[in-house]
Structures are given as C-alpha cells and as structure tokens.
Amino acid sequence: MDLLWSLLSITCLFLQLEGCTRVIKPNTVVVDVDMTLNTPSPCRNVMLQCGEHGPSVYWQKEKQKIGKGSELTIHVDEFLDAGNFTCHNDNGDILNHTLVLIQVTKNNRGEYPKQILQEISDQIYIKCETKNYSGVFECSWNLNMNPNSVQILVEAHRSNSSISCTVHDQDKSRAVCHELTYCPFQEELEKVGFNLYAIDGSRFENYSSEFFLADIVKPEKVQIHKKDEGDKKVVVSWEYPQSWDHPHSYFPLTFEVKALKNKHNCNHEVRSDPRTPNHKVPHKGSYHFFTEETSLQLNHSTKKYVFCVRAKDMYCNSPWSEWSAMYV
After folding, report:
1. Fewest CB within a 10 Å sphere: which of 15, 146, 165, 249?
2. Mean pLDDT of the chain
3. What is the mean pLDDT of residues 96-106?
4. pLDDT over 90 (residue 195)
5. Computed over its alpha carbons, how large is the radius of gyration of the chain?
C-alpha cells in the first residue's frame, strides 16, 4: 500500500508540474530552476502530496517538522530548499517520501552549467567505445569530485531495441552496456542514445551522447610477430585482435604500419615521399604505409627499428586502435 501511494503521489506531482519537473526514478523528482537574479519561475512553488489524509499527517525535512496536512507546498529558490521530504502519521511512521533535486537551467555562467563531470572537449563529457560489433559498449567520464559523494544513473536506448547498462561500483566513472538485440550484419538506421544522470547532494545534472556503434568501434591492439629468414631478411607479421569479429572478409581492418629508427616512438611523424606510392619504400630509413596485408619483409642490417602497427575498421570513420610496437 505504501508503494502504491508513493507512485500515486509522484504521478500527481508530475502532472501538476509537467513543464518543469520530471521523475527520474521512484520517489525522486527533478525541478528545473533558473537561478539568474530577479527571474520569476512557476517551478519555484512545488506541491508534494502524501497520499494519506487526516489532520494528524505531518511533514519533515531532514528530521525537522515543516508542516501538517496531506499536501505541502515548498518554495525552491536554492539548493538548501531541496532535499528529502517525508510525511508521517501521528505514530511517527513514514507514509511517503520524495527526494527533490534541482537542475540549474541558467545562472551567471550560462545555460545548464555543469560541475559534476569534467569536460573532455567542447561541450563533450562522455566518451563511448566498443572493441567489436558484439553489441557491448563502454562509456566513460571523469568526475570533478569524490565518487563517494556522487550518485550516477545511466540508461541507453534505441527504438525497438533492449539495452542494459551497469555502472562500475568502485570509481563510478564508467558503465558497460549491452544491446541484446543488436545484429552486426544489419545496417544501423538509428543512433544509440546514452543518458547519464549525476546527483551531488541536491544538485542534478543531465548529460547525453548519441552515436552509431560503427562510429565508436575501436579494435584492441594487434599482436606482432617476427621471423628471421636468414640472408639478412626478417618477416614481420601481425594478427587481427582475437576479440575482432568473424569472418574477417566481412569485417575487414586496415592497418597503419611504421618502421622507425629506434630513437623514435610510434607517434613520430614520418614524412611521405611522393615518389614512393603508398610509402612502402623506405624514406630516409623509415617506412610508413597503410595496408590490408598482415606481413612485411625487411632487409635486416645493423640498423635497429621500432616496428609499429595499429588497426581500424576499413569502412568506418572510427577510432584507430592503440599502437603495438616491437624492436626488430
């Protein structure tokens, strides 16, 4: 019965303030508040309903009595006005409760200012990646504060699809999601929507991202092997990551290959020589080319090379894998 009344009271609250409140989970309501000076807002008066009638019903906030009766109107101007509100019978039993949170829609910093998550780049707070086309993807973010003081809720959605997400318990800075109905052999017609709700005290912030899985697929690192064939020749080969999808003919990768003098690392830029198509001929002692092949023969001399390979989906504008390196 208590749960029924809780749901009824939340429904009433939502209907009464549909334009500026929303329910993010049972018994938790978010109020949009414009905090610029001298800006009136209908959202600042919020009615809470207990669902239980009678003169003995009373209300508490943080264990302090603040009113009587089955309804309570609160005025929300700042974060101190929000919080957890409970209604009780004359025996002190809790009949219902509602957590009121504030989302700042505007203040002197601008519209929908953010402070719980760190900004990765311009207005981007969430980074999502997947290592293959299994329908499993991971989204990550950075907190500006102690994770123990923050509550993170996430959800992902796509029409006619079922996606489950789980937030990492320890650091609360990443979530793993699985689209159960995803088919890697079908073209994606609609983007995945990912929503993150961050709660710090009475502050609520909403973050979102949209993407096709094909745009965030980032293969795992490739494995490099070396075989000495004598006569100062060595064959260097590399493999598709074990986690990459099969068949490889349907999910082909393209590889970026570098062979650099050993004083350089894989991020060293190699100047291209217009006289060497695809850069397969050494340019000033270094190689740099793109290929679908998985091996390269080098003339082995006294020179030492850092051999670097990374991979990406051949058909999508998606991220490269991390570099794999070997000294040859």
Report:
1. 249
2. 85
3. 91
4. yes
5. 29
CB 309 within 8 A of CB 255: yes
The Cβ of residue 179 has, within 10 Å, a number of other Cβ atoms equal to: 21
71: Cβ–Cβ under 8 A, 6 or more apart, which residues? Answer: 47, 48, 49, 50
Q: How confident is the model at residue 190 (pLDDT cuts 50, 70, 90)?
A: very high
Residues 172, 193 contacting (CB under 8 angstroms): no
Cα dihedral: 208, 212, 216, 218 (round 10): 150
Do 309 and 238 meet the contact criterion of CB atoms below 8 Å apart? yes
Place of tokens 């794999």: 324
Contact 35, 107 (CB under 8 A): yes
**Amino acid at residue number 2:** D
Query: Are residues 261 and 317 in contact, defined by beta-carbon separation less than 8 angstroms?
Result: no
Region 168-177: mean pLDDT is 92
Question: With the CA atoms of 62, 65, 70 and 76 taken in that order, what torsion angle do they form, in degrees rounded to the nearest 10?
Answer: -60
The two most distant CA atoms of the chain are separated, in Å, by 99
Classify each residue of 52-62 as buried b or exposed e, where b means 16 or more C-beta atoms within 10 Å of its C-beta: beeeebbbbbe
